[in-house]
Amino acid sequence: MADTQNTPEKHDKLSTEPYKGVRDFYPEDMAIQKRIFSIWRDTAEKYGYEEYSASVLEPSALYRAKSGEELVNEQTYNFTDRGEREVTLRPEMTPTVARMIAARRRDIMMPARWYSIPNLFRYEQPQRGRLREHWQLNVDIFGVTSLNAEIEIINIAYDIMIAYGLKNTDFEIRLNNRKLVNHINKDVFALDQDAAHKLSKILDKKAKINEETFVSSVKEIFAERSEDAKKFLALINSNNIEEFISHLPQCSANHESVREVREVMAGLERLGITNVSFAQTLMRGLDYYTGIVFEIFDLNPENRRSVFGGGRYDDLLSIFGNEKLPAVGFGAGDVIARDLLETYSGLNDTKNTSADVAICPINENNTPYALDIAEKLRDSGVRTVIDFSNKKIGDKIANANRRNIARVICIGDEEVANGKLTIKVLSSGEETITNESDLLSHFKE
Amino acid sequence: MADTQNTPEKHDKLSTEPYKGVRDFYPEDMAIQKRIFSIWRDTAEKYGYEEYSASVLEPSALYRAKSGEELVNEQTYNFTDRGEREVTLRPEMTPTVARMIAARRRDIMMPARWYSIPNLFRYEQPQRGRLREHWQLNVDIFGVTSLNAEIEIINIAYDIMIAYGLKNTDFEIRLNNRKLVNHINKDVFALDQDAAHKLSKILDKKAKINEETFVSSVKEIFAERSEDAKKFLALINSNNIEEFISHLPQCSANHESVREVREVMAGLERLGITNVSFAQTLMRGLDYYTGIVFEIFDLNPENRRSVFGGGRYDDLLSIFGNEKLPAVGFGAGDVIARDLLETYSGLNDTKNTSADVAICPINENNTPYALDIAEKLRDSGVRTVIDFSNKKIGDKIANANRRNIARVICIGDEEVANGKLTIKVLSSGEETITNESDLLSHFKE
Hints:
Number of helices of chain A: 16
Radius of gyration of chain A: 29 Å
Oligomer: homodimer
CATH topology of the domain at 357-443 in chain A: Rossmann fold
């Protein structure tokens, strides 16, 4: 150890760990990630949504505008570049898509149906399911004022859950309406803005705090109006929308916000989506929602949790000085997707097969012919790998098998001489002899 | 203007510009990006390469180890996180893949054929084709000592150029060997390490400086050995490998490094790849190359340029304290790919069609039936969009046409009543009437 000082290079072995809280995707992990992305892409595209993308770097001002200073300072990656620009690694995609739409407001045909699969960064202690970087499907429809937008967006979210392998009894779609929350706070209980805001924050946290804390927080906000606090708690404890409405004044039962919730539920039911419930405590954190909000809730008794969600945000373009634009969207993350796939579909389906066939030259001098055969197969789209090693032919075949490659073609002097090729199926041991000219016909299925 | 101070929120409209030097990908841009990525994926996978990925954030130490301090400090995005970790937005992918391979050296089956499509960051003044962020295909084979690795990697690079739409007369593959450069510097001219390094740097810059500066720089390095300088310049000015060798001492003509160049050229020729030339000045910048280096050179007379390249780097794992591992790879960028596609294939092929069919309800009350039809089509993988607007039916059809949607199905009261649907092909105006039960058969092609 005495010479450490003199030859630091030799002793300072570089760590092979990735940066804290982010993941390496080895081919076997990437195969799962690609399976998730392809569920997302296929589902969104089935509904005519178009993919867009943007850089992970955004001007920090974009997040100050609507998310509040707290999010920018405490939970995001910010730095100042050499041109004194404040830069943020995007923590969510919605401000970016709003910026992009606002920039070309007049050129973009409405309605615009857009989706993206960005990576997002959050600066926080890494923990299970909450990494510093994750990927998130974002699906948004712009320019539709009617509730058809909500119904379509929730339909897509539903289809994704089904594609993960869940049955409709495995999860629940929970609905609320920001307008209803506002109506109750302002019109029914005449709370001022500050009290209403506090109440919303407590509702947002309800699932994470105990009942007693929740009740005493509510009572504190209502202060001496204990009768109103009781009424409010009755609303919160209602088991469905009918019971909820029974606690409201007559005129509120027909309020626009209630009608919207009913209409979305009816629309989904018409599509055969019946695992929907009214959730009067659902807030979905972010400040920019203006109407219907929803979340997908995993009913797995061992892991009841909100899986993902979204809602309507009609005002977001105003931060760019644009006129309002109706917008409904949701985001779904990759970490929970992997978890759900594992629980409900199994990840073994995602077998990592790098090639359809392995070509194994028996000797080095058979390699040129092996390359010819490989080229022919590749030109027809057959994924073909060549074993260039000096291993014995038996080991080459065993290696192909370990790599889950289904078929092998061994090339020896005889094959080079007469052009007769043997295709061996590794699972069954079955062998088929073919001419070079008929080779492709064996790979057509 | 007097009230600016008091109501800054109203006047400070947020900019809709992206961060400097990065790009927004609107759906029409993303369609081209996806076309490039799918050329890359399809080509790499045809050769049995598996996709991997990693975070854009890496510990800064990873780049200090081999690239030299200069690159880390001047040209990369670095910042210090709140845990005092130095973080870099990756400027290239090779250190990352070396880190990943080193971390699981014993578990990864060799040879490993891996590819990735990372976004990379460089801190520099944005200019045409040199943005701060770009995407790059990285293709690498690990664990193959023989030149079969170089031949396969160059074959993949060649196939990608062909897939961009170039003919083999449109571009050239240029080859050199770092071992040959070292042999000439050390064995032929007996230059010390410092002089050899300087000479390599000048060679690397040759294309960017004028002939006079180049010659005088070479003469300066050789100093009083003017005869050697002359010999060296004769080597540099040789037009092909035979002429080059004629300027070398007899024993050098059979040097391993020359043999390697000849063998790669012969191997490629056997595969029908004949647009290959020996390029004695080719260095490919990065320090980690140890053997064959190559580049793809665009011969377009209006835009002669290096398009992309790579080479062998057998020592990179040693920075992690691992034993050496043979590795050959290349990187190809998205900006030049788009440029080449535009020049040689045209970008109009990349038509942005968000859906296969548009369903247009004539009245709002036809929407539920329209949704049923849409669901049926989507379940069979037909990309189906519904027009929820209140526009007249003629405008709905015109909108579908503007969006390049090929077919339209209009749903009015009559269609709801009798289930007879008319599929209209917008390009020809041709109409087909079908029953709901036969609907899918019209979308099978």
